[in-house]
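Researcher: I'm preparing a figure for a lab meeting and need a structural model of a single chain. I don't have an experimental structure, so a prediction will have to do for now. The sequence is pasted below. Please return the structure as C-alpha cells so I can convert it later.
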Amino acid sequence: MVSIETLDKNLIELKLALPKSVENIQLDCYLFIPKILDLNEYTYPSELFYRHLHNEQYLYTDGISLNNEALHLKVQQYGQQTYKSHRHYRRSICHIGDKVIRAMIADVDHVLNQQPNIKSLDLLITLLDNLDKICEGFRAQQPAKESLMHHFRYVDEYINWTAQQTLLRLMNRRKQLSKEGVARITAWIRKAEVYSVEQNYRLRSLQAPDQKQTHRLYLLKDYLSRYRLLDSKRRRKGVLIEQGVFSVAAFMSMAIATIIAFVTQQAFGNFSTPFFFALTFSYILKDRFKELSRNYIFRRIMARQCQFEYDITDPLDHKPLVTMKDGCCFISQSELPESVKNIIHRARRVNRNRREDVLHYKKHYNLNNKKIEHQYHGIKDKIVINIHKMLRNIPKESLTVYSLTSETSTKEQIDKNQIIYMVISIDDKHHKVLTLWVNSKGISSHSISDYATYKSINSTYEESANA
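Model: Understood. Here is the structure written out cell by cell.
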C-alpha cells in the first residue's frame, strides 16, 4: 500500500495507494532524530517542515497482461466513444496508452523470469503477437476530427518507442533468449522503426539519442502522465480557534492592565508619579501577556490537531474525490503508540536507549469512492520530504581508519554518520521502517524493512539466544 524511496542525498519519497475499496486511511510518519541535530519546535517549526514538503495526487490503475481480453476490447472501442471536450479525449487516449505500456512491461518481466528453454520462446512469440494486435487495434482508431489528431500522434509515438525500448531491454539479457528469439525481436524493432519513419516520428531506437530526442522523450512522457494529475486546494485549519484565542488573550491582557490602572489611580490619584509608572508598566505587561498567549497557548492547542485541509478534485469535471488533513509536531517518546515503540526497539539493535527527538507527521484521507471513474483503481498520494534543513547542524567529521593490504598499512578517511529512523504506519496496522545513514553531505546509505522483517529477525535472534 505504501512504498518508500530515496531520490537523492536529501529527498525521501513516499507513495501511498488509496484504493476505491477503502473510505478512510490514516498515515503516520515518525522521524527519530538524534539529539546532535538539535531539532525541536523552536529550531525546526512546522512552517519550515511544510516549506520543504511536496504533495502530488494522481489517478492510478493496476498493471495487466497484453493478453487480457478487456484491454483489447477497450483499445478497439475507445475511438468509437463521444467525448465532451478535447481534454476528455486526451485523458481517455492517455489512459489507454498508459495501460498498454504497463501491460508490455509486465509481460516482458514475465519472460525475463523464465529459464531459457522452449517455453520462454513460446512466451516471447505470444508477447510479440499480442503487441502487434494491440498496436494495430490502437492505430485503427484514429480520430476523425483533425483537431484531435495531434493527441493521437503523441500517444502513438510514445507507445511505439516504449515498445522498442522494452524489447531492447529484453534483448539485452541474451542469456534468457535463444537465437530465434533475438531474431524475432530484431525483426519487430526494425518494423517499428519503419513505421516511425513513415509517420515522421522523432523518437527512434536504431540511432543514438541526441539532445533533441531527449527533450522530445521527456515532453511526451510528461504529456502522457499529466492526464492523471488531480487538482489540490489547500486551506489552513484552526482559523476560528486562532481568532478566539487571540480575542481571549487581548481581553485578559486589557483587563489586567485596566485593573492595575484603577487600583493605582484610586490609591495615588490621577496625576501622580506612581500612577504614571503603574500605567506604563500595565501596558508593557499587557502587550507581553498578549503575545505570550497568542504564541504559546495557540501553538499548544494546535500541536495535536491537523494544521491543513486539502480538497482534491478532478480537473476535468471538478468533482471532489478526496479530502485530506495533515499536521506536523514534535512529540515525546511516551506519546508513541505501543506498536511503534515495539518496532523502533527492534530496529535499534545496538543502542536502544539513545536520546532522540521525535517528529510526527500525520495525514488522514477520506475518499469519495463513488466519484472516482470505474476505469481507475484509486488514487495515489506522492509525498516528497526534503531533509536538507534537518542536517544543517551535523558537523563535518571524519574518522581515520587503517587497514592492512599486501603487508602495508594504508590510511583512509571515512565520514562520520548519524542514524535517522523513519517509521511509517498505515492505520496502525501496516508498518515500514526506513533507516537513513546521514552526514553533512546528506544521505549516504539507507535500508528499508517492514514489520514482518523485524519480527522474523527478532524471533530468530531470540531463538539463537535461547539455544
